[in-house]
Amino acid sequence: MKSPLIISIRILISILALALLASADQTRMVKADQPPVAGPGGGVGPAPSSREALEAFMRQLDRSEMLYEALMFEEADRVSDMTIMRINAFLESHRHLSGIDDLENVLQTRANQLRELRRLKEYERQLEEDQAAARFDSLKLERERKQQELREHAYRMAVERRKQAEARAARWWPMWFGRPLVIMY
């Protein structure tokens, strides 16, 4: 039989644990736009399912990073938002374990890294679009100059063909029109 002291200590610990769980606030969540919140952790360690969940989170964050690299912003945003929501739920359900705050900091910095990667890729894409537009505009003058040259060349060739046709028709002209062909250039 257990001593009354041990029973009373267990009851006291249970009451304190319930009070701590009831007073847990929602500010300890990893969000893509908030700094990490540190606090004391307790407990023993993660279960194997927790390790698998963390590995899945890291795979999804890697996938999101690859999507940002491929400039697929909408899909990358969707994947990262869903992963961050799952991470928040995971952190809240494992808040009692020791080391959870350090893990939260790692996941928070990873989320911040993804946000900065998105900004960088957006800037690079905008820069490329601006450069392409500038190249197009600079080549527009060249295209217009070439088109003008082609029109001038086509006109000169038409004049040349007319002169050749008039030269070939010069001997037949008087017979057909009854007067000589007068060519003025």
Describe what you observe in this structure.
This protein is mainly α and 185 residues long. The chain has 2 domains: 26-136; 140-171. It has 5 helices and no strands.
Which characteristics define this entry?
185 residues; mainly alpha; 2 domains
Tell me the span between the first and last alpha carbons: 129 Å
What does the largest sheet look like?
Answer: none
Total domain modules = 2
Number of strands: 0
Shape: rod-shaped
Number of helices: 5
What pattern of helices and strands is seen along the backbone?
HHHHH
Structural class: mainly alpha
The radius of gyration is 40 Å
Task: Estimate the mean pLDDT confidence.
Answer: 79
Strand and helix layout:
Elements: H1 4-22, H2 48-69, H3 73-93, H4 100-169, H5 173-177
Helix pairs in contact: 2-3, 2-4, 3-4
Task: Offer a concise description of the structure.
This protein is mainly α and 185 residues long. It contains five helices and no strands. Helix content is 74%, strand content 0%.
